[in-house]
């Protein structure tokens, strides 16, 4: 009984101790794996899932952008209108359709601007007007217009590109040493008029001259206008207004970038005030319960995507981790129970082997060492008992043999005398 109790104690200690040790090791390994997976694999995997289930969308801030540009005096009723009024002050008619009266002069000067872009156009216009200064001032232009009018010349006869580069702020004139920028496309005055909703039949002479002035200034200042993606605005009108304002390329880029960033802020502030369904509709999505991921780019662009599906998939992360954890525990417990059941199989096999062959060695694992020792004692006792029985049997046979030999001779004599008596 003591041995059986000791064997049970050893087995309990081995099985339960091994179970607890394996559970602790599995828990630690699982925690390390989850931490490493969360740190290194989850971000990339999450991005791939989100990219596969959602598309980035940008707020359309064209309305806010155009309003901001207008507020800065760069719209149709801003710098262009002011410059046209200035031209009226220089004697150019402001009546509707009067631009047709100076079409020939305008076309000649436009061709000159197109042929001699940048510095060449400026120098040509200065030579035509008889000025040697780098930049023609408004006073110079006014004096020349008066002279032309007094001499009976057409109000637009002497118009050329030289005057049109002058509308920059004081000190912002262009130097002769600056070379024309061949990458600046030529913008005709007709295109500029069209961008402001005018034609030669509807525009005044002052407006046409202003448009030509803007065309020459674009070449002289070597500026281009590139609107951000998604912005719907009249690029030609904006470029002409900036040229009339004397903006260089850096100023153009700054104005556009600042206006775009501010327009995106305004559009975003208006967007967040909407209901979730309306927010989705504003971005072209049909979803009653969107989950937004918002990213602000370096240029101020607000990008959103609906990650509701990704969020739904992500919600399975913790249940899946818990399922794997519980599954691991169950697997370890089942393996431990299976190991316990193997003890019975091994013990049963050892007993069967012992009954079949008493001389066979007893093979049991170390955890069953006490049972193995017990079986070894039984085996030795069984062998000793068998040997003792065999020795007793042999002694009995020898006794019978001796008795048979000793009795046979007298019995033979008795049988002989009995035969004689018969």
Plain-language structure description:
With 422 residues, the chain is mainly α. It is 66% helix and 3% strand. The protein has 15 helices and three strands. A three-stranded antiparallel β-sheet has the order 1-3-2, with helices on one face. Helix 1 packs antiparallel against helix 14, helix 1 packs across helix 15 and helix 8 packs across helix 10. The longest helix has 53 residues. The radius of gyration is 54 Å and the shape is rod-shaped. The relative contact order is 0.11.
Termini gap? 72 Å
What is the helix fraction of residues, given as a range? 55-70%
Largest sheet: 3 strands, antiparallel
Average of the residue pLDDT scores: 80
Could you name the ranges where pLDDT drops below 50 across 5 or more consecutive residues? 128-182
- Total of DSSP H or I helical runs spanning 4+ residues: 15
The radius of gyration is 54 Å
Return the structural class: mainly alpha
> How many beta-strand elements?
3
Write the element-wise H/E pattern from the N-terminal end onward. HEHHHHHHHHHHHEEHHH
Task: Using the alpha-carbon principal axes, give the shape.
Answer: rod-shaped
Strand content: under 5%
**Strand arrangement, major sheet:** 1-3-2
How is this structure best summarized?
This protein is mainly alpha-helical and 422 residues long.
